[in-house]
């Protein structure tokens, strides 16, 4: 099965999140590997997108877009580390 | 760490084709006017959405080819077999045509001007976001880190932006290019046709890993996997190798 990568998630996830989730670091709930979401293997020949860990191939997340809603399954992500502007003192 | 940013809402805008430019037999550049385009960084992409008369919609992602912060958006699109969107963009769209577009998207595969050396590795139409980086560097005041480009194509006729790559002169401005021909070489080319390998990589990019270059690798999935593996095997730090895979087909 062919795959692309997490860069492909940037548009669909920006519909949900106010930040670019592809630069966030995700920890895989299966093997513990931590890396940028952009590095995930993304399988897109389906009604939705399935992102798998490049280390162990377990599912990190799935996203399915319907006409008026989105289903987001984050089953394989235990931590998301998201860069944000420094908080003001 | 990637740039921290809280972004505005991602909305579909209507892009108008202002010019088209053939690049190769299978690729074409579309120059677009996008009202209120917020500007982009080198390496980002857009989503294009087409809607048929019966309401059927389909969308694909395309890398931006134009330099960062330019006022127009240029996409270079390669026709893929049975590609619903690419066949329209390459064969049908004309100046004056309009379609929906959203972006810029993606903050990972992005080059920001710096003094660090950069190695760009392109397979086929993977050159497009890397060309945005080359153009951005060219438009920037001097003093940035050197760029090296390794561009793998099937044959000389498949080189996108051939004239522009040739005329972005080396080595005085710190930019060099090398080609890898996988099926057919130009006359007199020193190597037989063949894929990128460790020897070609070492010859094209003799920097030692301790120079801490940044790497951007873009192309079909198999090419990107192979090129990234070669870089890691040559001692380059995996965390500095940024990759973008567009799959065996684009659509």
What does this structure look like?
The complex is a heterodimer of chains A (89) and B (251). Chain A has one helix at residues 10-14, and strands spanning 4-5, 25-28, 34-36, 41-43, 49-52, 59-65, 70-73, 77-81. Chain A is mainly beta. Chain A has one domain (4-81). In chain A, the strands form 2 sheets. Chain A has a 5-stranded antiparallel sheet with strand order 1-4-5-6-7, with no helix packed on it. In chain A, strand 2 and strand 3 (34-36) form a beta hairpin. Chain A is globular and about 50 Å long. The N and C termini of chain A lie far apart (50 Å). By secondary structure, chain B is of the alpha/beta class. Chain B folds into 2 domains: 2-105, Elongation Factor Tu (Ef-tu), domain 3 (Beta Barrel), CATH 2.40.30.10; 118-245, Nucleotide-binding domain of ferredoxin-NADP reductase (FNR) module (Rossmann fold, 3-Layer(aba) Sandwich), CATH 3.40.50.80. Chain B has helices at 84-92, 127-139, 162-167, 198-204, 221-233, and strands spanning 13-22, 27-33, 45-51, 57-63, 73-78, 98-105, 118-123, 147-153, 175-181, 214-219, 241-245. In chain B, the strands form 2 sheets. In chain B, strands 4-3-6-1-2-5 form a 6-stranded antiparallel sheet, covered by helices on one side. Chain B has a 5-stranded parallel sheet with strand order 9-8-7-10-11, sandwiched between helices. In chain B, helix 3 links the parallel strand 8 (147-153) and strand 9 (175-181). Classes of the chains: A mainly beta (89), B alpha/beta (251). The interface between A and B is medium-sized, with 25 and 26 residues.
